[in-house]
Write a structure and sequence with these properties.
The protein is an alpha/beta fold and 263 residues long. The chain contains 10 helices and 10 strands. The chain has a 6-stranded mixed beta sheet with strand order 6-7-8-3-9-10, with helices on both faces. A 4-stranded antiparallel beta sheet has the order 2-1-4-5, covered by helices on one side. α3 crosses α4 and α5 runs parallel beside α6. The protein is globular, with a radius of gyration of 18 Å.
């Protein structure tokens, strides 16, 4: 079940430095919010606060009717999962794929030990990897394959909200496209809500329903995707778009899910 994510008056400080200031944001169920901005604008900080990895100085986050604090229940931790830019951040190099996936399944009581193997195979199939991957280690896979394993691990606990923090920026263009199509297909298949962070406007155009723009720790615009790319409201948004004279052809046609339809 997907729930509305609400961020109200959120402020994060590191000593005297304000990383996020008075952020208000709402993410509707089953939609993708693309968060864009220059490096250091606060995108990843916002993602980590929502995921419960950083404590805010002020403000509140709610998922549905429940507030999300740093002391989250097992169910609340399960509901929000994060995919990092570097899959090595979530994949233990000393563990096989079987262990990486089954540990998450068993910790959150998704299945018992008898059912874990079959569920691991299902998760790999969902991200288009063969079951033979189960007994291999992360270093034995390509970057794109490791990111698919990280996606499978995030999906293993059946979250309602998926946070993707620059999940394709370390991949080459062809692999990037494949991972984006996979995420779009999974979002549609599993009715996921997604917060997708990228500095690449082509990627944001391809995957988002709504675009939020950050600058120096503040939100300067939140608009439907079509409006943002046709008639951006903020001067900074227009600066970002002017720096991309032509949207990459890779993304202008939209992404296609498993049914072949634009997503």
């Amino acid at each position: 079940m997907s729930l509305t994510l609400e961020v109200n008056n959120l402020t994060v400080r590191y000593g005297r430095f304000t990383a996020l200031e008075n952020i208000h944001l709402e993410l509707q169920p089953h939609t993708t919010l693309g968060l864009v901005g220059e490096s250091g604008s606060g995108k990843s900080t916002l993602a980590r606060v929502v995921a419960g990895l950083i404590a805010p100085a002020e403000g509140q986050i709610r998922l549905g009717s429940q507030p999300l604090t740093m002391k989250r229940s097992r169910e609340q931790r399960k509901q929000i999962q994060m995919i990092f830019q570097n899959p090595d951040a979530s994949l233990n190099p000393k563990h096989t794929v079987r262990t990486i996936l089954s540990d998450a399944l068993l910790f959150h009581h998704i299945v018992d030990r008898r059912e874990a193997l079959n569920r691991c195979k299902e998760l790999l199939a969902r991200v288009q990897l063969d079951a033979s991957a189960l007994d291999r280690y992360p270093h034995q896979f390509s970057g794109g394959q490791r990111q698919r394993i990280a996606i499978a691990r995030a999906l293993s606990v059946e979250p309602s909200l998926l946070i993707a923090d620059e999940p394709t920026s370390a991949l080459d263009v062809s692999v990037q496209r494949n991972v984006l199509e996979l995420l779009s297909s999974l979002k549609a298949e599993l009715d996921l809500t997604m917060l997708f962070i990228s500095h690449d406007l082509g990627v944001i155009h391809a995957i988002s329903d709504t675009v939020a723009v950050m600058r120096q720790g503040k939100l300067v615009e939140v608009s439907p995707k079509e409006q943002f790319f046709a008639r951006p409201e903020a001067a900074y948004s227009r600066e970002l778009l002017s720096a991309v004279p032509q949207m990459p052809k890779l993304y202008t046609g939209g992404l296609h899910g498993a049914n072949g339809k634009n997503i």
